[in-house]
Amino acid sequence: MSKTKAKLLLVLVFAARGTSFLFSKALMGQMAPMSILAVRFTLAFLVLAAVFFPKLRGCSKASLTGGLILGVLYTVCMTFEMYGLRRTDTGVSALIENMAIVLVPIYAAVLTRTAPKRITILYAVLAVIGVGFLSLSQRESGGDWQGIVLIILAAMTYGVCIMATEKVSRDADPVAIGMIQLGTMGVLSLLVSLFQGSLSLPQTAGQWGMLLLLILLCSCFGFAFQPVGQKYLPAETAAVFTVVNPLTASILGITVAGELLSASKIVGYVLILLALLLYNSEGRFPWHAKR
Q1: What is the 3-class SS of 164-216, one letter each residue?
Q2: What is the 3-state composition of the chain as percent helix, strand, coil, each rounded to the nearest 5?
Q3: Which phi-psi region, left, alpha or beta, contains residue 51 (left: φ > 0; alpha: ψ -120 to 50)?
Q4: CB contact at 8 A, 259 and 253
Q5: Could you tell me what percent of the chain has a pLDDT over 90?
Q6: Coil, helix or strand for 221?
Q7: C-beta of residue 51 within 8 angstroms of C-beta of residue 281
């Protein structure tokens, strides 16, 4: 796959993932968060296993190990996301979580024991200020700070997931990795749901419809094919395309869910999107050379 096709695939993947915030929040009115994750990822695994069974049967040890690692990491990330999303607006949740864009190069700098670029630190500070305004907007609308904290934890974990995806997909079958990842997420979420005593199924056709969209669009395509695109791109490049995710979620939250825009929320949106877009344009402006 060429780098151009890999980038296009990631754009579509993150757009699909962006719709999950809306569907998940709507389903949480009737189902517990871990119950949604258990049903969603178990059925997504079964769908993909039926389609790509030869890849699953003949997967290598590297694919199996990589899928298990990503499954555990993404289960942690999605748990933070779901419980945070229950307390915050969809657009706010998506924007904060996708601060992973600026966290990835900082993580990479720590791992290589090199100082992060000053311009990257500036983007991170800009995004953090934006989070502050979004926190204020949640307070104004009757929300609480706990949801913001949970989404920040999801963002920190998501950055680790992006880096881990690049590493494990480099020398393995990305489709097999994606399937095993989903299966692992399904099993872990199911175990937690059973422990909580919260396992349940959708009760109406509308709920099943939203769940099927989560399974087919957000999970089978969104999760399973991210390793395919990342196999041909570095983690830093893949992180740039996550900006599509919060844009999709924010637009759907306002236009479909009717989420209100306050002054502080608009400022927070602008600051975080500015940080993400400036990071995306790195190398195209004179100030990027001065770091």
Answers
A1: HHHHHHCCCCHHHHHHHHHHHHHHHHHHHHHHHCCCCCCCCHHHHHHHHHHHH
A2: 80, 0, 20
A3: alpha
A4: yes
A5: 21
A6: helix
A7: no
Q: Which two tokens stand for residue 213?
A: 């969209």
What span, in angstroms and rounded, lies between the C-alpha atoms of 145 and 92? 12
Among residues 107, 103, 164, which one has the least CA distance to residue 131? 103
pLDDT in tens, 199-235: 888 888 988 998 998 888 888 887 677 777 877 877 6
Q: Which two tokens stand for residue 101?
A: 């864009």
Q: What is the mean pLDDT of residues 231-260?
A: 74
Length of the chain: 291
Q: How confident is the model at residue 284 (pLDDT cuts 50, 70, 90)?
A: very low
The whole-model pTM stands at 0.79
**Backbone CA torsion sign across 213, 219, 222, 225:** negative
Task: For residue 190, give both structure tokens.
Answer: 């199911």
Q: How far apart are CA 266 and CA 190, in angstroms?
A: 38
**Diameter over CA atoms, the chain:** 58
What residue has token string 């609308």?
141
What the block records as the tokens of 206 is: 């509308």
Give tens-digit pLDDT for 47-93: 989 988 888 888 888 889 999 999 999 999 999 999 998 888 887 78
